[in-house]
Amino acid sequence: MYLFHRSNTDIKEISLMMCRPFKDFGKGFYLTEIKDQAQKMAKRVARIYGGTPLINVYELTDSFRKHSDLRIRDFGDKTSKEWALFVKNNRDRMFSYLQSQDCNIDNKYDIVIGPIADDDMTLLFRQFENGMISFDNMLVSMIYKKTTNQYSFHTEKSIALLRKTEVIACE
């Protein structure tokens, strides 16, 4: 399978130290199966930070799930209560219950797969956190949002499974 990473630079080597914390699934290297999604995000990144919008393409063997030493959390392609709680906890800078299986701040999962919480969903999270809507209302609102996918890699062990194949300039 091919996965696409949006960027404004050709990534020569993946460095988890360069990844930002408090993302949907925790600090990690994020990719998607959807090339068009990566292209749109690369253009956005280049607009914000400068540089050229690029897509770094990686190959991941379909058998990656068979590695018994990998801890993988897969939410599928639909939003759910479990997914929403997981994303909320990872984005919450004050969340401290690291023993919880509903967070990946401590990189307990090597790979996490699931929908992306887009800007509309971010607004819903803020409304929930500020007590403007209930958790159930937030979930109902998410059900009708079109979702995309993301694969996040959080450990050197998981990064080693990726093989870079090419870099594509965005049109």
Give a description of the structure.
It is a single chain. This protein has one domain. Helix 3 runs antiparallel to helix 4. It has about 170 residues and is of the alpha+beta class. The strands form two sheets. A four-stranded mixed β-sheet has the order 2-6-5-4. It starts with a strand and ends with a strand. It is built from five helices and seven strands. The model has no long low-confidence stretch (mean pLDDT about 90). Strand 4, helix 2 and strand 5 form a beta-alpha-beta unit. It is globular, with a radius of gyration of 16 Å. About 30% of the residues lie in helices and about 20% in strands.
Tell me the strand percentage band. Answer: 15-25%
* Outline: globular
- Tally the helices: what do you get? 5
SSE topology string: EEHEEHEHHEHE
Count of folded domains: 1
Q: Percent range for helical residues?
A: 25-40%
Indicate the radius of gyration in whole angstroms. 16 Å
**Spatial sequence of strands, sheet with the most strands:** 2-6-5-4
User: Oligomer, anyone?
Assistant: single chain
| Distance, first to last CA | 23 Å
Structural class: alpha+beta
